[in-house]
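Retro notes
What went well: the complex prediction finally ran end to end.
Inputs used:
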Amino acid sequence: MSQPGGPLSQLRRGHEELVLGLLRKHGPLSRGELGRRCGLSRTTLYDILAELVAAGAVVTASRREAPRGRGRPAETLTLNPEAGQAIGIDFARRGLHVAAVNLAHEIVGSASEPHDANLPWEQRAELAARLVGSLTGGTLNLGALSAIGVGVVGPVGDPDDDSGKGTDGPHPAQVLLRERFGVPVLLDNNTRLAALGEAIWGAAAGVRDVLYLRLSHGVGGGLVVGGSLHRGAYGLSGEFGHITVDQNGARCDCGGAGCLETVASIRAVLDAYRAAGGHSGHAAGVPELAKAARAGDAAALTVLDGVGAHVGGVLAALCNAIGPSVIVVGGELAETGTALTDPIERALRAHVMPVSRHRVSLRRATLGEVAGALGGIALVLHESPLLSRYPAGPDLAKEPQ
Amino acid sequence: MSQPGGPLSQLRRGHEELVLGLLRKHGPLSRGELGRRCGLSRTTLYDILAELVAAGAVVTASRREAPRGRGRPAETLTLNPEAGQAIGIDFARRGLHVAAVNLAHEIVGSASEPHDANLPWEQRAELAARLVGSLTGGTLNLGALSAIGVGVVGPVGDPDDDSGKGTDGPHPAQVLLRERFGVPVLLDNNTRLAALGEAIWGAAAGVRDVLYLRLSHGVGGGLVVGGSLHRGAYGLSGEFGHITVDQNGARCDCGGAGCLETVASIRAVLDAYRAAGGHSGHAAGVPELAKAARAGDAAALTVLDGVGAHVGGVLAALCNAIGPSVIVVGGELAETGTALTDPIERALRAHVMPVSRHRVSLRRATLGEVAGALGGIALVLHESPLLSRYPAGPDLAKEPQ
């Protein structure tokens, strides 16, 4: 068999995708109908069908009504809706999120599990395999899996290459998952993948110019620009969290000072809440903060108001520069609701160019914590026009050999 | 004859472009060679060649050496290097810039003329026609002109359309120029066109991710994102001048307050220079300021230092968000040289994410005041991959009928 990722294997996968695409589009088809539509030779088509049937991706059935005046009923081929075609995994800082779609690109399941920020990669990969197993147990057949799309924290992209397609050597997640699943592993920054997920399936589905901001343990985001997900030179776009909001502000993990992340990350917000005497000075999490805000707690509202002003100011600057029509705010902190989004919106409207004031719309993310894993799936399927300027398939990331 | 812009005319123009492209690529070709390469019917090809020859775009010549064993030498066709194929006009706020390229896409000339900011459109169009005439007098044949690309001040794009391709009704410049030249007039924001010019022919030629900032009477810019010029929803990208740099700052023409333009436009900088006692308190222009800065004048240096800090801070924020590999600074104020670019660079390096600090390069624009006109030409030729996501030809802007 040819090397996965090699030219022959890619050609074959292209043929498979063609056949699967026809079945997805037209529903059940006979071998003859498929042959007329796909343009492949009979031998190639039958080979591919045999492999797809063996892998569980395609099932055969007899057509109920035989064509008039013919002999035995034609056997038709149809997608197996329970065969998983794509898996996305988000290796977030403090948790793992997995999602799977079937061959019809319907989301068939997702699973998440929090873990310590220092969990070694071997154990993360094991956890990932377990979560994938929990999705696939009994209901999902991974036989037709063509690749896995993976999100990781931090910049992804070759630091010396501004072509926008190269990357560093294989990431540990790529090496480990490839060992386990035996398929190519595509990689991108997990926040950019969350932006992709929201722009395909979530709050900004179908919008050509989207700015996605995630307020979580880190602050970052992603851009859909003119209908394409934007990667940036060196893979460094979407680092909204490291925009300076206070020249005299606190040191940031990035090495800078006064970055948005120093005032709008989960830790910064909870610290400010505690300092303001919120939750009786005790350690509280985002759910407690959100609850306090909903109850009208003054400390919670004041803190979120200040955060919102910073966030909205940065969003206004980015709107003037980039011109999105929709801004999506996600991450755990977005769960504090209007106590945060109202001040964000106020600062946004106050500082965006007046001509844009009523044109840009601010929306809460809708996909929750699996947005990044869903974005990973999109990377694998590579069917969204949002990915039209992305390198296709395994070329995106150098594959460990 | 079919309507310019109609489907038949577009088909015909497509055929013309095909023939011209072959001649551009292969040099002189006989009718037979052209026929084999272009795939058009003999009748269509001969018709098109006759029109191109009549228009002066293509000239005939005899091939020196007759093919072995044949009769009379074959007549070959070649591009007329003196035929102007494209004109770009930048209707800037206080002046007009015109550039022309020949069929080989070589710049054959450019001309500029300052005028009052209130000059009516009729007179601007007249001035444009005169400048075009001065370029074409004797050396340039406008017969093959297929369209004119025009830059204007302000947003260009349909305010209710986020598809990125619509526009408002025809702009006065479109109506007037079309009357004079009888060809389609394509329109975009002139600063975005200057960004396009710099990214094709100028300081950032060949770079996939470029941020262009123009410091002139207004402050604005343009983005090349992942190898394409970016327009933004509602045509509103690149408004870097209206990013807030001082919440308590001066009112801005846009209706906001404390915008970058209120501290970094020509007027703001000259006002600050005067207030600092520069040029003995007398009115001075940018050339005088630049001269003072080169001579080490303290007032000039202090003012430019402050402007540079603001500009560099904004650029750093945009770098973190968008990830360009090259920043190009143009406009008249860039002519003050390192007295301005050094503080810009310092603030940029101080506030950009440390990981990007040595990856982004800051460059002075190289095309001067004709950058926008050259961008207009690029819009007409529509051959740059930078325009791959732009609507082609006259579809970009609604044509007056």
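What we learned: Confidence is low (pLDDT under 50) at residues 1-6, 158-167, 392-401 of chain A.
What to try next: split runs per interface for comparison.
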